[in-house]
Amino acid sequence: MKVLAxxxxxxxxxxxxxxxxYPRQPNxxxxxxxxxxxxxxxxxxxxxxxxYVVCADDGSAQAALYCCTTADPQARALHSMTNxxxxxxxxxxxxxxxxxxAMIGCVFEFVATERPRWHSVRLRLMKDSDLVSRTSPxxxxxxxxxxxxxxxxxxxxxxLDGLSxxxxxxxxxxxxxxxxxxxxxxxxxxxxxxxxxxxRPGPHLDGAIQxxxxxxxxxxxxxxxxxxxxxxxxxxxxxxxxxxxGILPVDGVPAAAQLWITAARRAVIYKxxxxxxxxxxGVGSVLSKELxxxxxxxxxxxxxxxxxxxxxxxxxxMTASRRLEGLEAHxxxxxxxxxxxxxxxxxxxxxxxxxxxxxxxxxxxxx
Length: 367
Hints:
The chain has helices at 14-20, 32-42, 100-113, 131-142, 165-170, 174-190, 203-217, 229-239, 283-298, 314-317, 335-366, and strands at residues 2-6, 47-55, 61-70, 77-80, 92-93, 120-127, 145-159, 196-198, 243-250, 253-263, 266-274, 303-308, 320-331. It is of the alpha+beta class. The longest helix is centred in the C-terminal third of the chain and has 32 residues, at 335-366.
């Protein structure tokens, strides 16, 4: 087993590109397709790629860790290739029956031997249930880094356990079910509406992307800071057969849109929005119900993932949550790394003291 480092997506050999791409990497959000799109549309103006590929003895790619660095050669900080568009991060393992612990250890050992040395390693959005997330701090410590994990976000999800959509929907809160049924009847009675779900490339897709953008910009959400990312994601997912882009028009006007990514029997609710002038019609919930039905009964997914965040409405649709964590590691063999570690330790102790004082104050107030 050996590790190769690449500083450009274009430098990856063709055989590595095939091995690391979907569907050889069944998790779309850990595939080469995802990271290349993310970098080219929203990261490349300020970051530089640093891609570590774990190879077998015959040279075949078995895994990759997609990282990036700043253009400042003095910073020497290695970051996960993530930003606000990301929903998860980990070592991208593409071969079954491999020793994942050995792979991640091999990557961090390689990172520790690079010169000039890295002062810090910062990884984001790692699921607490992920083996790589749980073991990375130990592997980094073995390579000379002081490391720690910290909470970032909640991730709500729905394990289906063979449920049909009807069974699943019957278990939703009665208020949710009744509201959706009432809004659906009102929508059908008073308006013309027909949900269209786009999943393949074709001339229609450009119109669907425009509808999505129109709805998104008319919603409560801020316009996308990187306008090329979502169109690129939609086209890539359509090319790979992973797209589920639902559009609900009302009387010919685009009213609600949801972008789902469905790959390897897992559906991710990636983006959703509705035009606020249609809010009384419940267009968002009506569209959600139909896309859940398609994911569960047609695509027969085993999990639906509601992405990053702890918004209350997600609890109406999901049944479980897990933590997304960050990892901060500093190199104890460099002065800057050691200084950063001491600074982080001081901040951590200060947070602990403040938390203890807060608990004591609360206890005193209750007396």
